[in-house]
Write a structure and sequence with these properties.
about 325 residues, 6-stranded mixed beta sheet, alpha/beta, 10 helices, 5-stranded mixed beta sheet
Length: about 325
């Protein structure tokens, strides 16, 4: 009997390439990965069995009792957010606390990454309700993304006009700062009009790691509940395949580090700071991060009530089942 085919929509993160290419297999299943340019809406695509999903949108769905997606504790996108605040190159702003009362643009109001970034601003003592927030694309013409969410926006949050962009508004001085997970192309040029708010974001990120003990999770892998019901062994098997893919990727990058001039230095420093795995999979290893995120969604008014973090990952820890 042939193995069932499981089709996933995922962006082509480096650590997924071994799984995407077939170098790493998932025993008992044939995994087909549809590489995406943007995060898919798994539920609206009948051809997908699962895929990459916003942590924020997934947690809110679970909090509302929507169990149509089952999340795996595999965060395929994670990263510190200290680097995600941009200001003009000539700006006097250089710290989170200086954003009090500012005009700040962001790429999506309920987004996971922007929620983590607002958490940093809130932790610096800034009243988020006194900030003027404007939501829109980083560059004009970007589409395929729900930027506002399904819940009513706070009165200090508005959508930008059609055709406007955060980069243009920041450059023109109509915004004081922008929250964005990705840098505009000009950021990588000597003529860039923008810079990071923090002069030394790596040091701030090290301090965050020392205090929190995790790197924030942004996107995770989900499966449709109907698929999990049909194949109850799939979550643990897929998580094991994702783990193998990640470790295979790391070994190859350490061997073939000449893809950027300083990648070897970054890999060495990462091992010194974080140990062998800065993006651990498994429910138990992500408990603190999941709890902190649930608390922020409520504290920032993204979700109206406190969220029980136990609703996020309803299955027994697939990582524990794999290790047993």
């Amino acid at each position: 009997m042939s193995s069932p085919t499981i089709r996933l929509g995922l962006r082509d993160w480096d650590h997924l390439v071994p799984l995407m290419s077939g170098r790493v297999e998932v025993p008992g299943f044939r995994i087909e990965i549809d590489a995406r340019d943007v995060t898919p809406d798994v539920l609206t695509e009948p051809g997908l069995d699962g895929g990459e999903t916003s942590f924020s949108r997934y947690v809110q769905a679970r909090a509302a009792g929507d169990d149509r997606l089952v999340g795996l504790p595999a965060f395929v996108m994670r990263g510190f957010r200290h680097r995600c605040v941009l200001v003009r190159a000539d700006s006097a702003l250089r710290s989170f606390d200086q954003l009090a009362g500012a005009r700040i643009g962001l790429t999506g109001w309920p987004d996971s990454g922007n929620t983590w970034t607002r958490a940093l601003i809130r932790a610096a003592g800034v009243d988020l309700s006194a900030v003027t927030w404007r939501v829109g694309p980083l560059a004009a013409g970007e589409t395929g993304k729900d930027r506002l969410g399904s819940r009513p926006l706070p009165p200090n949050v508005t959508a930008m006009a059609d055709g406007a962009s955060l980069a243009a508004e920041l450059a023109a001085g109509r915004l004081d700062a922008v929250l964005t997970p990705f840098m505009p192309p000009e950021f990588f040029t000597p003529e860039s009009r923008f810079r990071h708010l923090l002069d030394d974001h790596p040091t701030a990120e090290r301090a965050y790691w020392a205090a929190a003990g995790f790197v924030p999770g942004i996107h995770l892998v989900t499966l449709k509940k109907a698929v999990v019901d049909e194949h109850p062994d799939l979550p643990a098997a897929l998580l094991a395949g994702l783990e193998t893919s990640k470790r295979h990727w790391l070994g190859r990058r350490r061997l073939l580090a000449d893809t950027t001039p300083w990648l070897l230095h970054a890999l060495t420093e990462s091992a010194e700071v974080f140990g062998e795995d800065w993006m651990p999979y498994g429910t138990a290893r992500n408990t603190a991060m999941t709890r902190a995120f649930c608390e922020e969604l409520h504290a920032q008014g993204i979700w109206p009530e406190p969220i029980d973090p136990d609703v996020v990952f309803p299955l027994p820890d697939p990582a524990a089942l794999t290790a047993a």
